[in-house]
Design brief:
Helix content is 33%, strand content 33%. The protein is built from two helices and four strands. Strands 1-3-4-2 form a four-stranded mixed sheet, with helices on one face. The protein is globular.
């Protein structure tokens, strides 16, 4: 049978692990639409400008990709007040215990 302190330690470690995997994004940036390619969807939108971000993770390249995508939304909002961003390029680098993701996008104003 486990002691109470061992059970607490496992519970705290589990919570910290889950928070370490969470992708962070502001509420406003979560409303920025993301498209994976320039298409007719953005034909009537105002092109605002380029956006570039990088994210790394000690967990996985998948986590780094998700964080870079969230960061791209945040950057489009912060730099241009954009409501839409199109990913035009993404690169991933895999290390021994790390993953890194780089994204380039174009910010657009489609709904204002």
């Amino acid at each position: 049978m486990r002691s109470l302190s061992t059970t607490r330690l496992l519970a705290i470690s589990s919570v910290l692990f889950l928070f370490g995997c969470a992708t962070t994004i502001s509420e406003e940036a979560s409303e920025v639409q993301v498209h994976s390619q320039v298409s007719s969807i953005v034909n009537d939108c105002q092109k605002l400008g380029p956006v570039r971000v990088s994210a790394s993770s000690s967990w996985s390249t998948d986590h780094a990709y998700r964080q870079a995508k969230a960061d791209l939304r945040q950057a489009a909002l912060d730099q241009y007040g954009a409501d839409t961003v199109v990913i035009v390029n993404s690169d991933e680098e895999v290390g021994f215990f790390t993953g890194e993701s780089h994204m380039n996008g174009i910010a657009y104003d489609c709904f204002k």
